[in-house]
Amino acid sequence: MNVIEYREYESPHAGNFSTEAGLSNKGFEVRVEHAHWSSSGAALIHLTDHCLIRLLLAEAPENAPLSNRGTLSGNRGSCQPLGQTIFIPPGSDFHFKHRACQQKAVICLFDPAAIAPLAAYRWDWEHCITDAMLNLQSNYLQASLRRLGEEVAFPGFASELHIECLMTGIALELRKEFLGKQRDDDEPGKLSRRQLQHLREALDADANDISLRKLADLCALPERKLSVYFKNTTGKTLRQYSAEARVNRAMRLLGDPSLLIKQIAYMTGFQSAAAFSAAFRKAVGWTPEEFRRRRSPGHGEAWSDELDVS
User: Is-contact 35 26, C-beta < 8 A?
Assistant: First the structure.
């Protein structure tokens, strides 16, 4: 199964790889692999039509000051430390910076659509590639990968069936983590309902102090695609939605008579009460003081409690 392209581009010495144990079947290949890099360098790893998931079992030297780093974003300068468990979806380019070290790992290559129990599902990884895949924290995935390594190294009764069951569980866990409830009628280039819900909850809670990187990680999307998908889905930019979410939060806070206008301004991310009043009046049609007065008991005028940010 030759589905990995590996190319060093900063060092003339490529990594040396050897397989301790392995098993290949239709749709997947599992192996316990040793890797050795004699010097620091960088490499590009490209997968064609298979996924790769790796669990690091051992590394030497153990107490090295810098860990290996990588990115799926295409920007080599944004490499981050790699976790014990990493996932690389098909069609992606993984830029990998390594130091001189030796590693032992469980490597799994698989095509979910070729594993019989998973063939009916849609596996569209293209729109969810994110560097969060390079540091998976799932205890389930780690335990399953360790069990796979043991089964490959010491095969027993019905090992192939057992391995296929483990691979099925791993693929479904990755689907739950990154594809959510992806349906065949999900529109390409748009956010799913689950992704949109994650964004709305995050922005409504803290619209003024959340980074684009964090929002992208919540949706398991690259930053460069998030803004485009959000606009395609809602008809609004993230900046517009964020501004409206801040005003909506201010409207809720104005219902608390113990809070000063200046306090609410700072709580919703405005630098001054004057800037807050101007933005609020532009969005709502009243100043914060007028809005508070109109919604006081007995005023009797109808209004909408929030702006429409659907």
Answer: no
**Six-digit token string for 246:** 């801040």
CA distances for 276 relative to 129, 265, 285, angstroms = 37, 5, 13
Rounded Cα distance, 281 and 287, in Å: 5
**What is the rounded CA–CA span in Å between residue 122 and residue 41?**
37
* CB-based contact 292:281 (threshold 8 Å): no
Which tokens sit at 115? 């594993």
Please choose, from the candidates 73, 168, 70, 75, the residue with its C-alpha nearest in 3D space to the C-alpha of residue 123. 168
- Can you give the pLDDT at residue 310? 47
Round the average pLDDT of the chain to a whole number and report it. Answer: 83
Which amino acid, one-letter code, is at 260? L
What is the maximum span of the chain, computed from C-alpha positions, in angstroms? Answer: 79
User: Cα–Cα–Cα angle for 39, 42, 47, nearest 5°?
Assistant: 130
DSSP H/E element including 125: none
In which band, very low, low, confident or very high, does the pLDDT at 64 lie, cut at 50, 70 and 90? low
Q: Is 266 left (phi over 0), alpha (psi -120 to 50) or beta?
A: alpha
pLDDT at 299 over 60: no
What is the Cα–Cα distance from 258 to 235, expressed in whole angstroms?
Answer: 37
- Tell me which of 32 and 161 has the higher pLDDT: 32
Q: What is the separation of C-alpha 203 from the centre of its chain, rounded to a whole number of angstroms?
A: 17
Query: Which is higher by pLDDT, 124 or 21?
Result: 21
135 vs 33, 54, 223, 292, CA distance in Å?
A: 19, 10, 17, 47
275-297 pLDDT, tens digit each: 999 999 988 889 999 988 887 76
Write phi, then psi, for 278 (nearest 5 degrees): -65, -45
236 CB-contact burial (10 Å; exposed 0-12 / middle 13-18 / buried 19+): middle
Domains and CATH numbers, the chain: 4-179 (2.60.120.10), 193-294 (1.10.10.60)
Tokens of 170: 């791993």
